[in-house]
């Protein structure tokens, strides 16, 4: 459809005016009737009138149309982002209301856009660059290092507040936000003092998230300067903060990475500074630690271990070994502890302490623990079929037991394997026993009610609360190796071990000595009242077939000639 333009309206207006003039002329000249003659005469004023109307309309329309064309063009530029250029003057001359409306529209849009951009680039709590702005600006700075000193390097500082969470949780989020604002101001003060030094270049400061801040110095002279800046930041953040009259100390841990030594891209530097920060946290907090070659090696080894461990679960590379526990009373085997081993494809047999931390931190312990529980249940059932009926204990770590499904899985595994629950013993560490939730405690009570027994492992390494210990549903307490090792040589250690055994008996539990290595220890532990012993002096952990043979032999020996066991020095 054709558009109705101002010009076409002018044409219609001129035609209408001409037509009216024509009819009036015809009316005025035709007294007796309409003749061809007065019709043609009427045409002359009609055409003159129409032409005059057209000419006058055309003049004002031409000015307005030009202004509107200019407005359309200006709006098109605005749509492409140009809000700054002036409004063309012909718009104001011909249609002043339109010019004023456009002016006000552009001013409002500019203000809104500024606000949106500020929100998108700056952290509203501290006014510092937010994560994406910090990244983008830092990448630009890395691409164009300042030419102040020849030996220039960049330095990235990762700053994590040590006790911010406590303040946020106890004093509320408003206080937390105020504290973050104060931290930002102290970082700005450090930045200002560095920028004032000769050759000083102001750093970029950002808040990545929560209580994590970053500072990027585009020009740090030497590694020593980075350490000094780290100390300056630490000192600035170590001073207490005044939060509504309360003095609050939070402190910080800082990781530092230098460009190009520790990375040339922002991603590399971030990773290095982050690792150094975790190292600072792990080394006691309140420190500034540089990234180092050793840290890099540790990170690489850890990444390899994590990858290998993930594959190990799929490739079924785990195995169990079994270490016997014997009764001091009659010298016979009364149980065994299942201990995890990893048949590593390149490194051979790996002991649990070399991979358990990694498994716990990554959560892989849950899958590994499931495998252990399944294998222990299957082993109990298998031994039952060949006439070995003794309890088998299984170790569980805190991360495993935290999962509600753990106990469910354990019972299901016993049920699947048709293994009686009374032959299963759960070993939980002293620390876990002291800290576990009521839910976990309930689940332990239920498992015990179903027939399983419970042992407290590594007793003497944690901080036990005796009244809690009394309330726990436990059957056995295992004296840690550190209590057992000195008993033969140290009278005080002997008395402590004896007192601990007394406490264990008072709690109504059996005392198990673990890590028993020598005949002298065996003799003393027997005298001070231990009920069960486990350790190299009796037998080292062994594979299933060796264990089955050992177990049969030990029973025969115990029954046959008093209580001489296994030929490893046991004397009944
Ligand atoms: P633990 O529960 O205290 O296990 C006893 C550790 O002492 C075992 O080390 C065992 O081989 C070792 N040992 C036994 N007798 C002696 C001795 O006479 N002298 C010395 N020096 N050591 C002895 P292992 O097998 O390397 O296990 C280390 C730890 O790994 C265990 O300490 C346990 O906490 C954990 N662990 C083992 N298997 C598992 C498992 O299946 N799951 C979980 N979550 N942890 C496990
Ligand atoms: Ca254990
Ligand atoms: Ca232990």
From TrEMBL:
InterPro entries: Biofilm_reg_signaling, EAL_dom, EAL_sf, GGDEF_dom, Nucleotide_cyclase, Rev_trsase/Diguanyl_cyclase. This is EAL domain-containing protein. SUPFAM superfamilies: EAL domain-like, Nucleotide cyclase. Signal peptide: none annotated. It comes from Sphingomonas glacialis. Pfam families: EAL (PF00563), GGDEF (PF00990). Residues 152-293 form the GGDEF domain. PROSITE patterns: EAL (PS50883), GGDEF (PS50887). NCBIfam families: GGDEF. Residues 302-555 form the EAL domain.
